[in-house]
Predict the structure.
Amino acid sequence: MPVIDINADTENLTLTVTAEFAAPIERVWHAYSDPRQLERFWGPPSWPATFLTWDHTVGGRADYAMTGPHGERHRAYWEFLEIEEPHRFSVLDGFSDDEGKPNGDLPAMRMDFTFEPTTDGTRMVTSSRFDSLEALEQVIAMGVIEGTRMAMSQIDAVLRDLREYAEGKGTTVEFIDDTHISITRLVNGPRDLVWRAYTEPDLIKQWMLGPDGWEMTECEVGLKAGDRYRNSWAPVGDNEGEPFGFEGEMLVVEAPRRAVQSERMQGTDGPDILSDVNFYEEDGATLITVIMEFPDKDTRDGILATGMTDGMEASYQRLESTVLAGESVA
């Protein structure tokens, strides 16, 4: 976890975040000055940021939006006040409306980012200054402290070469909290093709099968928010097991970057599970990150105990050996 301290100073009206990275100062600066890299961690899991404009000059402005797992969308902006590469920059950070105009009902703050080299890498200190105690308390109540910790936990994957970070590790599960997990898998193939493999029924049926001995008997996809989907599986031949399936609704679709869906076992009243799938490509490989949200810890543990992770790994291996290897792409 890069964050080593978050301090809210109600006397001086500041919120200070201290983090340390195992990367040189130039690499950390690049992550904060490239919007495509910055949006991979400027927002907690399930609330990723998308930078809509980017003018990285003094007096310039960057507009961004964070989209939640149910399609909620919050707009914000940076106005660049000072830039001294690679040691510091300052911005006015505020919320905005759908047209990008500042939202006066929510607090704005000055944020000062400083970077300094250390023996093992780089230390960053971010100090946010507020106009009033009410404004500081408002952003704390909005969850900025925990959100910052969760957002910064994603930066290690950004600072390291993607293949070095994830190749050969298979399907990896990380516990975020009692009701959220993160599942990652690096696959060797471009993002556009991986997206097709997730959204075209003829391709889905060739790889999304779990362990050997199963087939997909039904595949109805949803391609936009509000669409319903339905998938079913059954054992092949004499293999043991009962047919089963999932169904649900697409909540967010941002091709080819992100798809969020609710899902529940067919023929039941739930519980509903949220599956937030994100795709990032680098050097011809695509990192698939699945954030799953469960209604409670018992549901989380029960689903993991079914062998879900092993089934996903078998499917991803099949994805690489068929669709991404070019054996079954029309």
Observations:
- The longest strand covers residues 73-84.
- The first helix runs from residue 25 to 33.
- The domain at 3-159 is CATH 3.30.530.20 (Alpha-D-Glucose-1,6-Bisphosphate; Chain A, domain 4).
